[in-house]
């Protein structure tokens, strides 16, 4: 029996009973041959049938195994998605909690009372769906060693999973393709084509699935398999890299090199990983968030904020490792824990463009990013001013021209997030560098002062004109003549349509540009020399304040033209007054506060009532050249020859943000800064001929 | 730059600087200029010192990239031509100069528009200068001021051709303005020598007879 079976299986040979088996061979002829039963014939028939059934059974077994593998695979996939979802929900809750805390803190600071919010409890997370992962309790990835353990586990899973070989094959083919040695063998090709999923996805899924599958047979040498496993792991980690910290990647590499029997292919692992990372469509925002969290967490550790976390958080810590693979590194947990304290960290966090993610809605912690670069001037931009309401600005340059820009008419620039804007109109009439600029409260007029002492009044063209329209001579309204030397500063008083100018001829003049008598008054201070900058005292509109070469400031009454108050620098600190030269003077829009920018890197604050200096701070690395106060009086913007602009909180005089904005021409860099009076724009003008607008 | 010889020289125009002191600081040797705008600084420094010394102004520093040199000079020309445009604004009206002409031979069409247009001379002037400003500041063609692609250098020739017509129009139609301006700035002469020296225009197109008068040596050098 056994012999014949084997014979049958081996080739369907009939053995010695040749005469009747020829008929039996064809099963559909059986009924016609019923008359010729014989013991050997029956025996043979039974044997034949049995063999057939065996064959079919084994086929079904194979099918079943495949289907089971498929089921396990899909389950694993679902599991992975759930883990991901749970984690994201957890993060959302934490962010919500952080936001609530932030609001409470803000409320407390602002009104001095506790804010009554719905529930201020830190979110507690339902970890039940993770319980299936409990089997790897040992996987408490808090240290490097446990991380390695985790990797070991991951490797085991990958080996257990029936699809391992397929992935390995897919990956090896990819590696080969990458290496350009496509001397593929047929098996791999088949596997590749037969694979229901592409390698990228399958890696991720497999890493999270835990089905018990019998490993299929493999023809490749063991070391190669091992290498491929490592490779796959690397890819898995790359896929999940947004959840893990950069240290982890480093660990990876260490881990890799720890493994003795590596195939040369593994050397390509890094490249593959890189490719993966690029190809992987991980949400960029998420990536940023996690990177930021990681960065924050490092600071956190130093501050040992862990000690103050509520008990619920500890629970999370203990549950943390049970999350999906790749989540388990300490930093991430720390980062999530630290969210509640985010505010304290971010206040002092200069020049970080992404730190305000937790509070992007709250304007008081807005981060400014360069958006528009205005390039069209041939030489340094000396001054700029925003339209009072429209997203329009005008720049004045040493190339003798002014240019009008509409930020809504942009030309997208290549390979950068910033947009290029082309000027709509070029104002030509000055025959020397334009030094100062101001726009009227209606936005209909602008005033520019040049090196020869001419102040030009312009009718601002419509902000939607064609840049190559016909010349309209009436754009130039009038010239205000009176100064005999360079006009360095202009300022307007919106409410009364008044203009004040300071000139190197030693005078400050008050103008009413659109009335019959244009020159209203002239102020000067013999003892202080040449004025450098001037502004209206905003809370007392009948006064102007001017800074002088003597480093003192004088407040004048506009009606009597007499000095009312002097803001005097004391020379007690022994600093050469020349070094304290004032570049720019501005008044706070609502408070009796005057702010001055000095050559000696300082910004100084003065009380307009007492004339005393109330605060002085080193603000930049080089001379402070320009100042602007935001329309609400909360922030101060300063520009400096150190190429940077800085945003200051006026309450606590802390720097909120620093932006490097312009390049140097000779020893000058930033020449002016401005806030838009009604829209969220700030701008800087530079000696490099550019103006930049930040949003 | 600073502390060159033990004392700090800060080349800055502080607010309150008188017009006559504007940019009046000790010259800085080109080799010591380390900013990205060094060429512009150097050219402006030379012009400020003596606008008549064209030969020196146009002499390229040793081992310097010629593309950048030409580019920065052209920027400077366009910038200074603004002065001529301002003067023309006062005299050259669309009623009197309804077309951009120099000699009667050609009418120049304004290339600033989608389809070239027969703009009045003053508009041609403005549009050409505005267009040149846009092109020379274009992030696409001139993203850097320290190195310039060969393909972008070829754009300089057409800019030269167009802005030269402003000189020629002024010369043939507003001679008084032209002479006043030229006496002050020597711009047309410098421009003519510049384009000749660097082969940016055909000699036939240089119709303003400026070199023949007294600058023959300059031309022969070039």
Automatic annotation (TrEMBL), chain A:
GO cellular component: cytoplasm
Keyword list, A-Z: Calmodulin-binding, Coiled coil, Cytoplasm, Phosphoprotein, Repeat, WD repeat
Superkingdom of the source species: Eukaryota
Recorded GO MF terms: calmodulin binding
Keyword Transcription regulation: no
InterPro entries: Striatin_N, WD40/YVTN_repeat-like_dom_sf, WD40_PAC1, WD40_repeat_CS, WD40_repeat_dom_sf, WD40_rpt, WD_repeat_striatin
Stretches forming WD repeats: 374-415, 427-460, 480-512, 575-616, 617-658
Bias kind Polar residues: ranges: 1-23
Compartment(s) of residence: Cytoplasm
Bias-annotated ranges (Basic and acidic residues): 202-211
UniProt name for this protein: Striatin N-terminal domain-containing protein
Species assigned in the record: Hypothenemus hampei (Coffee berry borer)
Source species taxonomy: Eukaryota, Metazoa, Ecdysozoa, Arthropoda, Hexapoda
TrEMBL record, chain B:
Keywords: Metal-binding, Zinc
Gene3D superfamilies (alphabetical): MOB kinase activator
Name of one Pfam family that matches: Mob1_phocein
GO MF assignments: metal ion binding
Protein name stated in the entry: MOB kinase activator-like 4
Binding-site positions, Zn(2+): 92, 97, 169, 174
SMART domains, alphabetized: Mob1_phocein
Assigned protein family: Belongs to the MOB1/phocein family.
């Amino acid at each position: 029996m056994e012999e014949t079976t084997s014979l049958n299986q081996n080739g369907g040979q009939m053995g010695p009973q040749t005469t009747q088996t020829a008929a039996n061979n064809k099963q559909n002829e059986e009924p016609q041959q019923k008359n010729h039963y014989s013991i050997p014939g029956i025996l043979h028939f039974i044997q034949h049938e049995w063999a057939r059934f065996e064959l079919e059974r084994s086929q079904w077994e194979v099918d079943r195994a495949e289907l089971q593998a498929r089921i396990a695979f899909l389950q694993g996939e679902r599991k992975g998605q759930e883990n991901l979802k749970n984690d994201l929900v957890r993060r959302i809750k934490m962010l919500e909690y952080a936001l609530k805390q932030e609001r409470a803190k803000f409320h407390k600071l602002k009104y001095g009372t506790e804010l009554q919010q719905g529930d201020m409890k830190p979110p507690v997370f339902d970890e039940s769906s993770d319980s299936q992962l409990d089997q790897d309790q040992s996987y408490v990835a808090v240290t490097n060693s446990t991380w390695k353990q985790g990797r070991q586990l991951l490797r085991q899973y990958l080996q257990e999973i029936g699809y391992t070989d397929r992935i390995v094959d897919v990956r090896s083919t990819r590696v080969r393709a990458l290496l350009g040695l496509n001397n593929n063998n047929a098996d791999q090709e088949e596997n590749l084509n037969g694979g229901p999923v592409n390698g990228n996805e399958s890696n991720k899924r497999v890493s999270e699935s835990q089905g018990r599958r019998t490993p299929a047979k493999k023809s490749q040498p063991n070391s190669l398999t091992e290498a491929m496993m490592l490779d796959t792991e690397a890819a898995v980690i790359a896929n999940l890299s947004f959840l893990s910290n950069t240290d982890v990647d480093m660990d990876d590499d260490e881990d890799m090199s720890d493994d003795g029997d590596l195939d040369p292919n593994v050397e390509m692992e890094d490249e593959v990983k890189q490719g993966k990372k690029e190809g992987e469509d991980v949400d960029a925002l998420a990536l940023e968030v996690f990177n930021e969290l990681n960065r924050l967490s490092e600071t956190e550790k130093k501050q040992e904020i862990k000690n103050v976390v509520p008990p619920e958080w500890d629970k999370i810590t203990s549950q943390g490792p049970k999350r999906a693979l790749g989540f388990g590194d300490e930093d991430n947990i720390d980062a999530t824990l630290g969210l509640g304290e985010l505010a304290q960290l971010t206040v002092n966090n200069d020049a970080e463009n992404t730190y305000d993610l937790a509070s992007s809605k709250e304007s008081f912690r807005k981060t400014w990013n360069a958006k528009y670069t205005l390039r069209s001037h041939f030489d340094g931009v000396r001054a700029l001013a925003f339209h009072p309401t429209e997203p329009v600005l005008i720049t004045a340059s040493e190339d003798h021209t002014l240019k009008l820009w509409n930020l809504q008419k942009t030309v997208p620039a290549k390979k950068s997030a910033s947009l290029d804007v082309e000027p709509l109109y070029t104002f030509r009439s000055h025959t020397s560098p334009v030094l100062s600029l101001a726009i009227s409260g209606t936005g209909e007029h602008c005033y520019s002062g040049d090196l020869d002492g001419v102040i030009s009044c312009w009718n601002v063209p419509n902000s939607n004109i064609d840049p190559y329209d016909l010349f309209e001579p009436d754009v130039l309204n009038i010239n205000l003549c009176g100064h005999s030397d360079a006009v360095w500063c202009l300022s307007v008083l919106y409410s009364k349509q008044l203009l004040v100018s300071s000139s190197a001829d030693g005078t400050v003049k008050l103008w009413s540009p659109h009335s019959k008598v244009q020159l209203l008054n002239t102020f000067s201070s013999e003892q202080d020399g040449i004025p450098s900058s001037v502004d209206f005292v905003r809370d007392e509109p009948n006064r102007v304040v001017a800074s002088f070469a003597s480093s003192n400031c004088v407040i004048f009454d506009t009606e009597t033209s007499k000095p009312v108050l002097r803001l005097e620098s004391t020379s007690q600190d022994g600093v050469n007054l020349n070094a304290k030269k004032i570049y720019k003077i501005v008044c706070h829009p609502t408070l009796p506060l005057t702010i001055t920018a000095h050559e000696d890197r300082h910004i100084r604050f003065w009380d307009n009532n007492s004339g005393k200096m109330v605060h002085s701070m080193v603000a930049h690395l080089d001379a402070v050249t320009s100042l602007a106060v935001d329309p609400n009086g909360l922030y101060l913007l300063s520009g400096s020859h150190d190429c940077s602009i800085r945003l200051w909180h006026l309450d606590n005089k802390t720097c909120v943000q620093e932006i490097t904005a312009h390049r140097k021409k000779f020893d000058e860099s930033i020449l002016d800064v401005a806030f838009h009076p009604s829209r969220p724009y700030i701008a800087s003008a530079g000696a490099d001929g550019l103006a930049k607008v930040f949003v | 730059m600073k502390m060159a010889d033990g004392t700090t020289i800060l080349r800055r125009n502080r607010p309150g600087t008188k017009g006559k002191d504007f940019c009046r600081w000790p010259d800085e040797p080109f080799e010591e200029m380390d900013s990205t705008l060094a060429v512009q600084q150097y050219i402006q420094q030379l012009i400020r010192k003596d606008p008549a010394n064209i030969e020196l102004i146009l002499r390229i520093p040793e081992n310097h990239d010629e593309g950048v040199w030409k580019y920065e000079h052209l920027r400077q020309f366009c910038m200074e031509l603004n002065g001529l445009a301002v003067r023309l604004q006062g005299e050259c009206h669309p009623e009197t100069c309804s077309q951009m002409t120099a000699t009667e031979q050609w009418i120049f069409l304004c290339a600033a528009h989608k389809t070239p247009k027969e703009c009045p001379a003053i508009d041609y002037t403005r549009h050409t200068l505005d267009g040149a400003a846009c092109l020379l500041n274009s992030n696409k063609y001139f993203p850097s001021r320290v190195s310039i692609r060969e393909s972008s250098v070829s754009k300089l020739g057409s800019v030269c051709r167009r802005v030269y017509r402003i000189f020629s129009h002024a010369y043939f139609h507003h001679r008084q303005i032209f002479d006043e301006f030229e006496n002050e700035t020597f711009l047309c002469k410098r421009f003519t020598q510049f384009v000749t020296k660097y082969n940016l225009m055909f000699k036939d197109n240089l119709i303003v007879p400026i070199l023949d008068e007294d600058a023959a040596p300059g031309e022969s050098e070039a």
